[in-house]
Amino acid sequence: MIRVAVTKGRIEEEFIELLRKAGFDSTPICNKGRSLLVKSKDNIEFIFSKSNDTLKFIDLDIVDLAVVGKDAIIENDTETYNELLDLNIGKCHLALAGFSNYKEAKVIASKYPNVARKFFAKKNKYPKIVKIEGSVELAPILKIADGIVDIVQSGNTLKANGLEVIEKICDISTSLVINPNSIGLNAIDNFIEKLGRVVC
Ligand code: PRP
């Protein structure tokens, strides 16, 4: 039995497609409804979690593999995690966004305070960074912040809230992260190899 933590949300559908292409039993995931843990016929247990928790499950040594966005990895510290494979799904980018009249930011809101801090520090700028857990686009509208650092995929959320990209920070996709204690196990190698074959 191997255990894989999958980040809930936009990655899920594309990941299921990869599993299917690789020949794994994806039916339990497709039919999971609100279940947070399902087992496949191939002896794989899938756990569905929020991105920071997906990485926490690696830290806690309770999953072998994690399917998680690079945004969460960068925010938590890239050095810590063994990224085996870029799954080339969930593609989006991190960006600084604001209203069209954005000038200089005194306050930035973000789900990614570390990314935001580093981005501005490279420019020798040190705005106050306010951590917001979700719907970050609200912050400029409510005048909590002058701009936001967030994920942009279609750009629809920015547009719908009157915001725009001021500067792209970096491209993001989804990584397969391995627990160091699971490296070299046969079942894990087999899973990675099959998945690797269908990654575009
Ligand atoms: C993310 C991100 C943006 C949105 C961007 O939020 O924080 O709000 O998606 O996607 P788009 O460019 O395709 O519109 P998510 O939907 O993950 O939820 P959250 O706001 O609760 O974090």
Walk me through this protein's architecture.
The chain is of the alpha/beta class and 200 residues long. The protein folds into 2 domains: 2-90 and 173-198, 3-Layer(aba) Sandwich (D-Maltodextrin-Binding Protein, domain 2); 92-172, Periplasmic binding protein-like II (D-Maltodextrin-Binding Protein, domain 2, 3-Layer(aba) Sandwich). Helices cover 32% and strands 30% of the residues. The protein is built from 8 helices and 11 strands. A 6-stranded mixed β-sheet has the order 2-3-1-4-11-5. A 5-stranded mixed β-sheet has the order 8-7-9-6-10. The longest helix is centred in the last third of the chain and has 13 residues, at 186-198. The radius of gyration is 18 Å and the shape is elongated. The model has no long low-confidence stretch (mean pLDDT 96). Bound molecules: 1-O-pyrophosphono-5-O-phosphono-alpha-D-ribofuranose (PRP). 1-O-pyrophosphono-5-O-phosphono-alpha-D-ribofuranose is lined by residues 9, 134-137, 150-157.
What are the key terms here?
single chain; 200 residues; alpha/beta; D-Maltodextrin-Binding Protein, domain 2; 2 domains; 6-stranded mixed β-sheet; 5-stranded mixed β-sheet; 8 helices; 32% helix; 30% strand; binds 1-O-pyrophosphono-5-O-phosphono-alpha-D-ribofuranose
